[in-house]
Sequence to fold (523 residues):
Amino acid sequence: MSGFEPTPTPETAPYWDAAARGDLSVQFCLQCARHYFYPRPACPRCGGESVEWRTVAGRARLVSYVINHRPLPPFDATVPQIVALVELDEGPRMMTAIVGVEPAPEHLPLDLALEVAFVDCGDVRLPVFKPMAVAA
Amino acid sequence: MSATSMHGGRVAIVGASETDTIGKRPDASVLGLHAEAARNALRDAGLTISDVDGIATAGIYPQDISHYLGITPRWLDGTLVGGCSFLLHVRHAAAAIAAGAADVVLVTHGESGRSGVGADPWIRNPAAISGQFEQPYGAQAPYSTFTVPALRFLHDRGMTVEHLAHVAVAQRTWAVDNPRAARRDPVTVADVLGGPTIAYPFTRDMCCVVTDGGGALVLTSAERARDLPSTNRAVYLLGSGESAESSIVSQMADPGSFAAFRHASAEAFRTAGLTHADIDHFMAYDAFAHLPLYALEDAGFVGRGESGDFVAEGNTVKGGRLPVNTNGGGLSYTHSGMYGMYAIQEAVRQLRGEAHAQVPGVDVSFVLGVGMFFAAAGSLVLARHPA
Fold:
């Protein structure tokens, strides 16, 4: 995938290290008993520093999205992107890409059930989401 | 000595002007656009460079513009929070004037958003929070980032993409007779929906124009304003507010509502001591067509879920209950990158009775601006009379 490669920082490295192992990991505040995202050393809700990294289930729902018909470099300008806002089962929301589905509104009902997947992006593996496989 | 109030009409905008022309300005650099607007605004005020002792700007350093113009400042403000920065500058300048930290403040804006003359290159930072958690997914350009929450806003309110189109249609009605506007042809909902898709659900006319231009404001105390040749055209600051939410769109507490709009507008109403019924005119920052819908609801002009029909039923156009974005807005008038300055300029023109599409009897105007992508907000309550 030709893409925009993120550069981890000391505070975010555990997130990217987990992604490299195929895990989606976010921080959990022991005081609030809540997960939070994006990575930072203290809970944005209570300011508490008693936080730990937890691997989450990788399931989410589609909150909102656009289908970007004008991708900028380094992306391929001819390939529409589904730029999506998703909410993890554990609560936090994150921006992501939806893969494994045609970039057309009829395939992207809001609240669609999603599961995490990982794509290589330079030196990092990038968490993305795909529609949840339906049990036969 | 106790400071006087920054609100309640104690501070006035005594000069306001845009660059001679806007739109395509390959003849002027960013700095040149700032300076042209600054000279025009000072002339408008009946003041000169030597009167100015405070400078505020965004996008370039305030010292760059003060030195370029020959100003020796005793007060500087380089607040840069995105397109609403100039609303914050007005608010900060009012505080400085009320506190005696400055007597005459010049606020300048200039951008070569279309021609790129003398503009800084766009540098991406892949280690920034947005660089790590949004841009890798294509949330780079404003049209594929700022727009992401819109479908959820519409969905949760039983609204449709047609409501976005109605915003573009309504604003175009104001631009048709405005020779300075970039897009002036009347459009229908079908025209807007049938245009090229930029980032579904946003078509071209739901996205702002990309232009060159500048604007500037001159502020001083209401007391000093009385002695200026521009006194009959002074516009007074009754109230204001500012706030911020998240630097990345995904972290809005509610994708269907912008907390900083709510907080900044509530503070502006509170400090002005006014209610929505007192507002004659509304400038709602519109880089994209969903933003006036958020603004109408978040500022409390309509209830939750009512914004779409409010626009579609004609309440924001000529003769409507609340004229909105009467210059045509960022969608039709101009948008050099940080639109807030143009929203303030149009509010001043309406209050002075000098707008291209003049609304009769505008005594109080409310200006609400957004910075970056649902990151920061600023609000101003401006009036023809000091109280």
About this structure: Chain A has two domains: 8-56, 57-136.
